[in-house]
């Protein structure tokens, strides 16, 4: 290869320029490929974390639902004990009393009724995804849109910092 200040033939100079350009293009392609690979791995990690958060939400919703139904059943038991007429709790023809297994010892019914469970949800992965600016690594825009709607609706349902569900 030629040295600065030295005269070289035109074909040699052109070959040097082409070689440098090809080297730069290969380096850029390799860098782009490596970044794409890293983004794919990051997307997979986020999807796994999001799935875990959503599964935690499902478990929390089920536990909260069961607790609420249990409180309804205990309230029903107290109402019957006080001589009142018990209301029926059913959903789509299924008696909700049959769907919950709650054991409350005599004398602790009122305490059980007042022990409210509050949904707070698990949005750790989505919060990190959004705050880090890594939403760009998510390949499926529909997934991002659906997750945004889900967490927005969740936030709308939870009132302020108290994490108490709105009744309206």
Task: Give a verbal description of the structure.
The chain has one domain (10-163). The chain has 4 helices and 4 strands. The protein has helices at residues 10-81, 109-114, 124-131, 141-157, and strands at residues 90-91, 94-95, 158-159, 164-165. β3 and β4 (164-165) form a beta hairpin. α1 (10-81) runs antiparallel to α3 (124-131). The relative contact order is 0.10. The model has no long low-confidence stretch (mean pLDDT 81).
Please tag this protein with its features.
mainly alpha; two-stranded antiparallel ribbon; 5% strand; 168 residues; single chain
Please give the domain count: 1
Estimated helix fraction: 55-70%
Let me know the average pLDDT.
81
User: Distance between termini?
Assistant: 79 Å
Care to count the β-strands? 4
Query: Strand order, biggest sheet?
Result: 1-2
β-sheet strand percentage: under 5%
Please tell me what the overall shape is. rod-shaped
Q: If helices are DSSP runs of H or I spanning 4 or more residues, what is the number of helices?
A: 4
Topology:
Elements: H1 10-81, E1 90-91, E2 94-95, H2 109-114, H3 124-131, H4 141-157, E3 158-159, E4 164-165
Antiparallel strand pairs: 1-2, 3-4
Brief rundown of the structure:
With 168 residues, this protein is mainly alpha-helical.
